[in-house]
Amino acid sequence: MNARLRHASGFTLIEVLITVFVAGIGLLAVAGLQAMSKKFNYDAVQRTSASVLAQSMVESMRTNPGYLDFYLTSDASSAASAVDCGAAGAKCAPAELAAYDLYRWSQSLAGAEARIDGDNAGGLVDPTGCIQKGSVSGLYTVAVAWRGITGIAPPANDDPADDPARNPCGLNLHRYDDPREAGEDDRMRRVIVLDAFVADPNAP
């Protein structure tokens, strides 16, 4: 084989550069997909946690049905309890139990029940817990809002009235404003809404 053929069988610098460029584009695409996967996984974990916490409050209300009005709140993060109803031998009146349930719920929402190095572990990011009376007797709405990673547009005028995004839980609290946007927009808010019937023995 002569020198000319040997030279032609090798790679030129341009071919190497093209290969590096194509490989770089592929690696950037993989990195982008990984970042998106992490965001979706994070949102899924937060949403699942919020659903579990909303259901746990419904169960608490069902164990104390005669005092359901004591559970109503527009922001459970400010809940406090004068009596630790979970302590051994504690004797709580139903109203005290309702206050304790709300306080314990607020701690669970914030992940304060488990701590690592003094910081809350688990829970939701900037949570807001709300409990509202429904439109019919015995119907209650438990809503949980938290802060997402990215901003989303508010619901459109033609979106259905029962769209969870229309629930007021967490609105206008300055917790969910998008720092990249001017003003108060709540674009970072995520919310789940759970409607449940709770039998009230005091209902007419």
UniProtKB/TrEMBL annotation:
Signal peptide segment: none
Lineage summary: Bacteria, Pseudomonadati, Pseudomonadota, Gammaproteobacteria, Nevskiales
Keywords assigned by UniProt, alphabetized: Membrane, Transmembrane, Transmembrane helix
PROSITE patterns: PROKAR_NTER_METHYL
Region (Disordered): 153-185
Transmembrane segments: 12-33
Type IV pilin Tt1218-like domain segment(s): 33-102
Ranges of compositional bias, category Basic and acidic residues: 174-185
Protein name: Type IV pilus assembly protein PilV
UniProt organism field: Panacagrimonas perspica
